Amino acid sequence: MVAEIISVGTELLLGNIVNTNAQYISKEMARMGIDLYYQTVVGDNEERLTGVLRTALERSDLIIMTGGLGPTKDDLTKEVVASFFGKALVFDEKTCQHVKKRLESYGIAEMTESQKKQALVPEGSLVIPNPVGMAPGIILAQGEKAVVMLPGPPKEMKALLEECSRLFINRLSEHVFVSIHIKCKGPDELPIKEIGEAPVADILGEILDSENPTVATYAKEDGVLIRVTASGKTREEALVLMKPVVTKIAELLAGKIAWVKEDNE
């Protein structure tokens, strides 16, 4: 199962906001054992969004889209996905009532035509009510491909990704990824010649060629970070695979390690 993230919003391209959604989704995909190979950011443009979606579906099985589900004319995600799959947008009464109640809680008695747009969903899709906002999460599957559409606001995205994962995404993978991070001491604790990424990589040698677990080094201002990632059917199985590699790294870098911790600690 290969996943891909498409973040929709011209404001992302202009640098007006930081794309924290992609980082969060990436971590969740890794936790669920789903391979994530690509991320794309595209503006609110129908033609470009269609092109990005087409490319994504040619190379990936699961597309996670964020943004573009609001009530304005430049919110195009549902329209583009529905058109791509040859589906009509249909009125969803439950979503309409949800939006209406949410607006009433804000002191707004009547829905505008733009706000009613949020109740339009691609026919045949699975609609997930938004517990913290108005626009629902939407899952549209066809054949071996699936698109999950989530709102752009991070609070709403996180809540709906959790629900979409529980109802759908968790079933797509038979393994999980677990990562251990090993932090080497920095310049305040070791001679400069011992702390660079190249010296550490030289010490690790063939360990860096390992496939499961994989081992990678990253240069940081306060010392090199080593990430060891294993894939297994369970977290416990992945940890068993990692143990000899982590132990060997600890032996090779004796006296140079500041701390070791699992990714979610």
Provide a descriptive summary of the structure in words.
It is a single chain. Helices cover 36% and strands 26% of the residues. With 265 residues, the protein is of the alpha/beta class. 34% of the residues are buried. Helix 2 (20-31) packs parallel to helix 7 and helix 3 packs across helix 4. The radius of gyration is 22 Å and the shape is elongated. The strands form 3 sheets. Strands 2-1-3-8-7-6 form a 6-stranded mixed β-sheet, sandwiched between helices. Strands 10-11-9-12 form a 4-stranded antiparallel β-sheet. Strands 4-5 form a two-stranded antiparallel ribbon.
Question: What characteristics describe this protein?
Answer:
265 residues, alpha/beta, four-stranded antiparallel β-sheet, 12 strands
SSE order and pairing:
Elements lengths: L1 E7 L1 H4 L6 H12 L3 E8 L3 H14 L2 E5 L10 H8 L4 E3 L1 H13 L7 H4 L3 E3 L3 E3 L8 E6 L2 E6 L3 H14 L8 E9 L12 H8 L9 E5 L6 E8 L2 H18 L4 E6 L3
Parallel strand pairs: 1-2, 1-3, 3-8
Antiparallel strand pairs: 4-5, 6-7, 7-8, 9-11, 9-12, 10-11
Helix pairs in contact: 2-7, 3-4
Outline type: elongated
Largest sheet: 6 strands, mixed
Task: Give the radius of gyration.
Answer: 22 Å
**Helix content class:** 25-40%
Query: Number of helical segments?
Result: 9
